[in-house]
Design goal:
The chain is mainly alpha-helical. It has a domain at about 80-250: Serine Threonine Protein Phosphatase 5, Tetratricopeptide repeat. Helix content is about 70%, strand content about 0%. α3 crosses α7 (about 195-210), α4 (about 140-155) runs antiparallel to α5 (about 160-175) and α8 packs antiparallel against α9 (about 240-250).
Length: about 270
């Protein structure tokens, strides 16, 4: 009996020692965990200001991206009203045009080109654009501006025949406005896209020769007209005239949004 009690006492003692050891181990582990948590909390407190700074920068970048996207979308959609407001503010000074470029004529060398020349002369007699006197141009009325915007919107939809009709109506109904040069330009473009190159030449020539010489970036159409004359002559197969227009564009507007002069020699 005493042996059994002794063994029982020993077992209880051993289990008590084991339990104390386990508790100590657990306490050690808890201490390490608490220490790690404390360190992580300290690190997080140090990182938080940097995270806030990064978030602020990201918000600024997001705003800039949204602004760029809005500008891009506006450009793609072609906001007609904004475009025409800029175009309506063309310089209305009474400056004389001192350096006019004479209307270009096509030189033909064979029978086929001669037929084209006769056709062009006939078309010129049938429909010759009226010469504009820039000193008499006035800002467009509300009705005139709406008429112009409507014509331009039709052109942007690539309905060139419809746009041509509307622009011609605009010139007839609202003459002598500061949008007159623009109307001549878009009429020329409409004829060009309808492959009526003779009439396109007429309107581009008037657009170029009868208004102040200003590039598109300054509210004018001079560089755009020279470029379209180059394209028109090229489409007609008159490479010499096309080359002459290209060189004129290079001389007068070496930097322009229509043609990048790389490898083109005089």
């Amino acid at each position: 009996m005493s042996k059994k009690l002794f063994l029982l006492f020993v077992l209880v003692l051993l289990s008590s020692c084991a339990s104390n050891q386990q508790i100590n181990n657990i306490n050690d582990r808890l201490g390490k965990i608490e220490s790690a948590i404390s360190k992580n909390t300290s690190d997080l407190n140090k990182i938080k200001p940097k995270v806030s700074e990064v978030e602020e920068k990201l918000n600024i970048l997001a705003k800039k991206i949204n602004t760029l996207e809005n500008n891009t979308n506006s450009t793609k959609k072609v906001k007609i009203s904004q475009k025409t407001i800029v175009e309506a503010n063309l310089d209305n000074n009474t400056n004389d045009i001192t350096s006019k470029i004479p209307p270009a004529s096509v030189v033909f060398s064979n029978e086929t080109q001669e037929k084209l020349e006769n056709k062009q002369i006939k078309e010129t007699e049938e429909e010759k654009p009226k010469e504009a006197i820039e000193s008499k141009l006035q800002p467009p009325s509300v009705e005139a501006l709406k008429s112009y915007e409507n014509a331009l919107a039709i052109y942007m939809k690539r309905d060139f025949a419809g746009a041509l009709d509307k622009f011609l109506q605009f010139l007839n109904n609202y003459p002598h406005t500061t949008l007159e040069q623009n109307a001549y330009f878009w009429i020329g473009n409409s004829y060009y896209n309808l492959n009526d190159y003779g009439k396109a030449l007429n309107y581009f020539s008037v657009c170029l020769n009868n208004f102040s010489k200003k590039p598109t970036s300054d509210g004018g159409k001079t560089d755009a007209c020279i470029f379209m004359l180059y394209k028109t002559y090229k489409s007609m197969g008159n490479t010499q005239k096309a080359y002459d227009c290209l060189m004129q564009l290079k001389r007068e507007y070496p930097v322009n949004p229509y043609f990048e002069f790389r490898g083109v020699k005089n």
